Amino acid sequence: MTITVTPLEEGFGAEISGIDLSRPLDGEDRRAVYQAFLDSRLIVFRDQDMSPDNAIDAARILGNDLEPHLFKHFHHPDTPLIMVLSNRVNGDGQPKGMKDAGTFWHSDVSYKPNPAKATFLYAREVPDEGGDTLFCDLTAAYDAMPGDMQDRLHGLIAMHDYNHVPRDIFSKLDVTPPPPCPQPVVRTHPETGRKAIYINPGYTTHIEGLEADESADLIKDIFRHCLQDRFRMRYNWRAGDVVAWDNAATMHSATTKNLDPAKHRTIWRLTVSGGPAF
Ligand SMILES: [Fe+2]
Question: What is the pLDDT of residues 59-73, one digit of tens each?
Fold first, then answer.
C-alpha cells in the first residue's frame, strides 16, 4: 500500500490515505502513520470499516497500552477498551452510550498524573448536521506567544480537577472522581521535544503559588491567546472517519449538547495510555 499524508485544508492535522485499518499493517506503514501523528498532532483516516479488534489494533499504532474509560457503563459490550459515545437509547430507554462527552475545551485525562497520550475516535454513524468536534493546536499557540509570556509560564504548575466544570455524572453513575492533580503549564512533548500549553478550561482550576485573582487573570489571558481562530479547527464527521490526536499538544471540545435526538451519532473511543507530563 502507498500511504499519502495530506495536510487538512483548515487549521492543522493531516489526512492519511491509502490505508485500510481493517487489515494488518506492516511495520513501515505503522511507522509512517506514527510519524504523521507526531508531525501533525491530529490524523484523519476516511472510509474505514472496522471490527472492535481492528479498532484496537489500529489504535495500538499510537501506543501499545490502551486504557478503559472510568465510566464502565458505556464500555462496548465486547471490550472495555472501547467506550461508546452515542445518543441512541435502548428499547427500555437506557442510553446505549455516553451522550455528552466533553462539550468543553479539554485535553483527555489531564486530571490524572499519567494523562492519555492519544485519543482515537471511529465514527460508526453521524448525523447530516451537528456533532462537530473542535480542536485547538496548543503547540502552535505556544510557538506564537511573545517571548516574555513564554518565559513567565515556564516552570509554573497548574492544578487539574475532573470536577472543575460542574457535572453530576459521577453521582449518577456511582463513580468516585479522582483527586485533583498538578501538571506543568508548559509541557515539553516527550518525543518531539516541542513545547505546548498544557492547561485547559475544562479541567484546570488554578495556577499554584499565585493569588487567586492573579491566577484567574493569567489563565484567562492564556486561553484568550490559545483560542484564537488561527489555532483552531472544526471537524465535520462522516461515517467511517477515524480521527486520532495527540493530547500533549492539542485540546478539543465536543459540540453534542444541542444535537437533535432524532439524529443519531455513534462513535467508538479508544484511549492510548501515556506517561507523566512532567
Ligand atoms: Fe475528550
Answer: 999 999 999 988 888
Grid cell for residue 229: 481562530
Calculate how far, in angstroms, residue 1's C-alpha sits from the geometric centre of ligand 1: 32
Burial class from Cβ neighbours inside 10 Å (0-12, 13-18, 19+) for residue 109 reads buried
- In this structure, how many other beta carbons lie within 10 angstroms of the beta carbon of residue 115? 24
**Distance, CA 149 to ligand 1 centroid (Å)?**
27
Say how many Å lie between the CA of residue 115 and the centre of ligand 1: 12
Contact indicator for 274, 63 with CB cutoff of 8 Å: yes
Nearest to 94 by CA among 173, 162, 177, 163: 173
Which homologous superfamily does the CATH classification assign to the domain defined by 4-273? Clavaminate synthase-like (3.60.130.10)
Question: pLDDT (tens digit, 9 = 90+) per residue, 234-245?
Answer: 999 999 999 999
C-alpha of residue 107 to centroid of ligand 1, in Å: 6
CA dist 157 and 206 (Å) reads 9
User: What does the alpha-carbon distance between residue 136 and residue 102 come to, in Å, rounded to a whole number?
Assistant: 14
Domain borders along the chain are 4-273
pLDDT at 257: 84
Could you say which DSSP state residue 191 is in? T
